Amino acid sequence: MRGTSFPLGAGLLVSGLTLLAACSYTKETIPEPTCTSVPAVVSYQRDVLPILQARCYRCHSAANYNNPSPNGSAGALNMESFAALKTWTQPTGNGVSYIVGSIRQLPGYNPMPYDGKDGPDACQIAIIKAWVDAGAPSN
């Protein structure tokens, strides 16, 4: 018996659906940062502040506040001010805080660091996220 033939329309439909299915998987999902060393209770002073100092203060400190960066933008958040930092930990319309959305480089947020250099690693992001999820206490 010869191979089964399909009408031209059915072949195009199958080809189109295959292409559509392939395209639907091209969007990269950004995984939730994971880390095995996130403390049960995250402390701002002990856990978060050192990360911010090491990874963020080069642009987001009093010395650099609103000073133009090499790309022409300004560090519009002074992370040395806990009160200012706290405002960026509040959930946005989609439930993710601006600071977490930015350092995770989620769509709709300004990716931080803007130059992609020396940003927090997955463990550091998980620690900051745990702190934000706990209400960003000043402990």
Task: Explain the layout of strands and helices.
Blueprint: H1 8-24, H2 44-55, H3 82-87, H4 98-103, H5 122-133
List keywords for this structure.
globular, mainly alpha
Would you kindly provide a brief summary of this structure?
The chain is mostly helical. The chain is built from five helices and no strands.
Textual characterization of the structure:
It is a single chain. Helix 2 crosses helix 5. The protein has a domain at 44-133. It is globular and about 35 Å long. With 139 residues, the chain is an all-alpha fold. The protein has helices spanning 8-24, 44-55, 82-87, 98-103, 122-133. The chain has five helices and no strands. It starts with 7 loop residues before the first helix and ends in a 6-residue tail after the last helix.
Structural class: mainly alpha
- The rounded Rg comes to 22 Å
- N/C terminus separation: 78 Å
Strand content: under 5%
What's the overall average pLDDT, rounded? 77
Strand count, sense and closure of the main sheet?
Answer: none
In total, the number of strands is: 0
Described by the principal axes of the CA atoms, the overall outline is globular
